[in-house]
Specification:
The protein is an alpha/beta fold and 494 residues long. Helix content is 39%, strand content 24%.
Length: 494
């Protein structure tokens, strides 16, 4: 896309709702009269830690005042956090603390907990060492005790981070990742996903119980009718449709036909009806307060619903790029996966596997129809398809390849017991030609080789769709899975 087109899309994206991370620092009241000055030192270290978190801007930080240094104070802090509706809790272990100063906070906050022990000094000055200095650096001493008490309360931490307070990239990268997870978790459990139509007949892997999404992910699945969309398409004004048409013409290229006789050059006339439908979809999303949509309509005799369904590709692509993922074939699980990948800033396009190139050891990864335009390599194209393979209707369809570089795939599936499961892979998007078929494709390279990767991926029982994003974010998604209590498998070697 041109720079102006990208700016226009980005400007229209709504801000992501920031996750809420509670932070409390723990100590032991018994030390303060014994070792004057230690408490003040610990408060300085705590203030530095909180300031670093706030400066990152990855989440909203809600810090308890002072030190949680007694069981009484633990009850007060826990009750405070209970009112704050947190997404995640950081326990900053400033020095040794009895676990009774920690567990009440965790129990009342009721959210996943990360234990953090960051020593202010890389090592003590042993020649000058004293008890006060030891207490200032006793960050890990009570970690086992806290974890043991949590285990007995069925409150296992989602992570433990050990390191130094300053100049420790390993520790701070983990902490930053958890702040991002808190924001994605916040977005996920406040999501409203529209469900319109039925699953594409015969795709058994995609059937799912919407109540499971509500119950296990905290979101709400809103049932919507095609009538709801048609009513809004009918309400679109000429001005709205004209503005959308202008946006379409600025965002997309319109290449000449390639080898496929099904894919021809899209004309301005081909865009008028999809532009109106795209405006109706905007209204639908706004009226129902949606953060995602999964839909499918089979069609019947060229009726109004079939015409609308066939013209949704462009509107879907715009909405997905604006952070409202739209999943075709009523794949609710993949809509959720796309939302997760988008909120990690990686895009999140609707994808599946296409043919393998065994000669060069890659697999084409993509799908027909709509896509996340902000992860395209260059300007995306529109081609008019005389037939949508496997579906009724015809019209313009999006074609591009992903940006060259690292990519991540997230498949959200379900097990025999009905539980959600995440299947992950990291690979590379390679440069090179893709078929001029009006379908998105990218050359996906996965270790150790394409055959072994596809075998491993398939063995995990995924759905045939997945969310495709740019960058390597499998580690962050795995952290989110811990918060959700969901099984998570990485199918590519690290």
């Amino acid at each position: 896309m041109t720079t102006d087109s990208v700016k226009a899309l980005l400007a229209a994206r709504k801000p992501i709702r920031s996750g809420r991370v509670g932070v409390f620092s723990v100590g032991h009241y018994y030390y303060w009269p014994q070792f004057p000055g230690v408490r003040e030192k610990l408060l300085e270290h705590t203030a530095y830690f909180i300031k670093q978190l706030e400066q990152q801007g990855k989440a909203t930080i809600i810090a308890a005042e002072g030190l949680c240094d007694s069981s009484q104070r633990a009850f007060e802090v826990g009750n405070q956090f209970a009112r704050e509706q947190l997404d995640l809790l950081f326990c900053f272990v400033a020095t040794y603390t009895p676990s009774a100063h920690v567990l009440p906070v965790i129990q009342r906050a009721g959210v996943p907990v990360v234990l953090i022990a960051l020593q202010p000094s890389a090592a003590m000055d042993y020649e000058r060492a004293n008890i006060a200095m030891q207490l200032e650096n006793d960050n890990i001493t009570s970690l086992p005790e806290i974890a043991g008490a949590m285990a007995r309360a069925n409150q296992k931490p989602v992570d433990v981070v050990v390191g130094t307070l300053r100049d420790d990239d390993r520790a701070w990268e983990r902490i930053r990742a958890w702040c991002e997870v808190a924001t994605v978790w916040h977005e996920l459990k406040n999501a409203r996903i529209g469900l319109m139509g039925h699953v594409y007949e015969g795709m058994l892997d995609m059937n799912s119980d919407p109540t499971m999404a509500d119950a296990h992910l905290g979101m709400h699945v809103e049932h919507i009718e095609m009538d709801d969309l048609k009513a809004r398409v009918d309400q679109v004004t000429e001005r709205e449709a004209a503005d959308k048409l202008a946006l379409i013409e600025s965002v997309f290229d319109f290449p000449d036909p390639g080898a496929d006789p099904v894919a021809t050059k899209a004309t301005r006339e081909d865009l008028i009806w999809p532009a109106q439908v795209a405006c109706g979809m905007d209204r639908l999303v706004a009226d129902f307060g949606l953060t995602g949509l999964a839909y499918y309509y089979r069609g019947l005799g060229g009726n109004d619903y079939e015409r609308i369904h066939a013209a949704m590709i462009i509107g879907n692509s715009f909405l997905t790029s604006l952070g409202v993922p739209v999943a075709g074939e009523l794949d609710l699980k993949n809509c959720i996966a796309m939302l997760i990948v988008d909120r990690f800033g990686a895009g999140g396009s609707f994808a599946e596997f296409h043919p393998v190139d065994f000669a060069e050891d890659f697999v084409l990864v993509g799908h027909d129809g709509p896509h996340h335009l902000l992860i395209a390599d260059g300007k995306p194209a529109l081609r008019k398809l005389s037939v949508y393979h496997g579906k009724r209707g015809s019209g313009p369809s999006v074609e591009y390849k992903l940006k060259v570089g690292p990519i991540t795939m997230l498949g959200l599936t379900q097990t025999h017991e009905g539980k959600f499961k995440m299947v992950l892979a990291e690979g590379q998007s390679l440069p090179g030609l893709i078929p001029a078929t009006g379908n998105t494709n990218t050359r996906g390279k996965f270790e150790p080789d394409v055959r072994t990767f596809l075998e491993r991926w398939t063995m995990e029982g995924p759905t045939h769709h997945f969310a495709l994003g740019v960058g390597h974010i499998a580690d962050k998604i795995a952290l989110l899975a811990r918060c959700l209590g969901i099984e998570c498998v990485l199918t590519t070697p690290k």
